[in-house]
Every structure is written in C-alpha cells, then in structure tokens.
Amino acid sequence: MQTLMSTLLLLGAIQGGITGFGLLLYAGRKNGTHWLALAVLGLALTLLRLWTHATGLEAQPLFRRLPLSFDLAIMPLAYLYALTITAAPAAAIRRGLAWLVPGALFLIYSVLVYLASLGHADLARMDKISEQWHYSRVKHIEDLLAVVLNLALAGLIWQRVSRYHARIEDWLPEQTASLLGILKFSMTLALIAAVANLIGFVSNGVLHLGDRHYISQVVNACYVAVVYIAGIVGFRLRDLPQFAAAPAEPSIPAPTESALDATYQRVQTLMQADALYTDADLNLNDVAKRLSLPAAEASRAIREGSGKNFRTYVNDYRIASVKHKLTDPAYERVSILAIAMESGFNSESSFYRVFKAATGLSPTTFRQTAKAADAQAPAQHTQES
To answer: Which domains does the chain show, CATH number per domain?
Structure first.
C-alpha cells in the first residue's frame, strides 16, 4: 500500500508540473488561468514533498526540510482563480491577494531555515539548527493555519462557483456548464481533504492519538485527483464567457401572459419542426436570436410554459429523441453514443446522467427492455388469436 501511494504521489507531482506549465504556456492569463496554473504547480511541489517523506528521502541531508510546502498558497491561488472566472470585480481580486501573505511569509521563513542548516551531513546537527529557528513551533502554527484557511477557502470557492453556475447556466452550452460542475466537484474533494486534515491535526496535535496514516492517504488521494481535474477544467474553461450577472437585457415593458404563451408556442415550433435541440452548443441566446426577442423574455416564456429551466427543457427533447431512436429498428445497429450525439448531446457523461435521471434506467437497459417488449408483443398477439 505504501509503495502504491508513493507511486501515486510521484505521478501526481509529475502530472501537476506538466499541467501547471502547460496552462501557463497555453492559456496564459486568460480567465485567470495563471492563478490556477500556479495553484497546480504549488500542489505538484507539495506532492513532491509528500513523496520524499513517503520514500524516506527526507532523511537525506539534501532533502531535510526542503522548502516545498505550499499548503498556505494553494487554496488562496485557487480562490483568486475562482474570483476571476466568476467575473468578480477587480477590487475583489486585489483584496483576494491578501490571502497569499501567510504562504509567502512561511515560504521565505522555510527557505532561510533550509539554507541555515544546509551543508551539514549530520541530521541531528541540522535538526538542532532548525530548532534554533523554532522550526517545530512555527510549523505547528503553519499546519493549523493551513487547515483553517483551506477549509474556509474551499467552502467559499464552492459557494461562489455554485451561485455563478446557477446564474448563468441557461446562457452556456451543456458541456461548458458541466465543466463548472466539475470545478465544484474538485472543490468538494478539496473540502474532504481539508476536513481530513482537520481530523488528523486534532487527532495528532491536540488529542495526541498519534499519526493516522489512513487520514493522510485520503488527503493525498484527493490532492492527486484535484491535479487531474484542474488540468481538464483549466484548459477547457479558458474561453468561458464571463457575466458579472445574467447577461444584460435592454429595458423593455414586461410581456403580457398572452405574449409569453405565444413566445412559448414559437419555441415549441423551433424544437419540434426545426429540431433545434440537436445543436449540441445550443444556448438561450441562440433561441432568443431566432425569435428576435430578448433572452430574458424567452427564458421566462419557457419557464412559465413548461415549468422547467431552459437546459432541462432542451434536454427533455433530446431524451425523447434518444428514446425514440433506441426503439426504432432503423437504429438497431447504431451505437447508443452515436444516437446521443445525433440527438444533441456532446458529452457522454452528461448524457448518461440526464438519461438515467429522466427514465430511471441506463440507455443500455432501456434498449434491452424495449427489445424484449417488442419480442413479446407478437407472441402475445398469436396466443390471443
């Protein structure tokens, strides 16, 4: 188990380094991607430090207290990324820079301690020099501060991204909206890691129950997973449109109930006659342009006419199309994924999730059940005759 974990830590560190530099070179400062890149690089270096600990390299003089701990910087950098990608005001982002101060101070301190003890082959001597700098006490404070800071910021990021996602989801293509959901999931992992760190800190530092290895394994696994998720999110959200609020609409009189009903009927026509739902990148603005109406009016008409938000409304048409084709003999040899793509889905994972939520069955089970029902129908008809 220890070998597996050390391998995962090393692979995570390598992947994080590649992802971090890739984000810096490919995406630059667009949509705050540089903040995410720095956070991933900091996480990669932290994983490298954990790897030296897991493999025993930390007992070597060169690696003793190597200043690779960025626990106080990773989440503040992620928070700055979240602020930028959710269109926070520039003043809020500038205020967010203050979260980086504790990490910067501890990094400077760690470098000074490392340099002061470097050059001594005797570990006991190196430890003595470190204690002259009160390293153990300062590290204890840093650990406690990191636990509190990471827990608070992971919660703030999750809350901010959730609210932003809910506010603009109708204006985004399905796949782009799902990426914000993935970002929320990565913050859920970060919250789990922060809570596990808190439990470990209380267990070891307060209750003196000793180190709980399974807690550190949970934390490390979450860190490695976040590295991989960050790569997906960072590269694909660099072109995310930003809205300080829902996209602005011109000031117009509120539409009457009959006008909303007429608009809803026109939307129905677009979906049924023009199969507009088959456009995988369809968003509310596209529908509004076809209607020559403000997006807010189109959204309200859909909500009041169907009782659903825009995304759910469109996905219902897509699911209906998929269900029809799964039972159509002409599509018997067509793969489920190809049918889903033809019906307007552009993400396999979101298709399976939406289909299961709508029908209670997986697409494969639905198709098999439909085939079995079709096979039984002629037999029942023969018996009745």
So the answer is: 2-236 (1.20.1070), 257-374 (1.10.10.60)
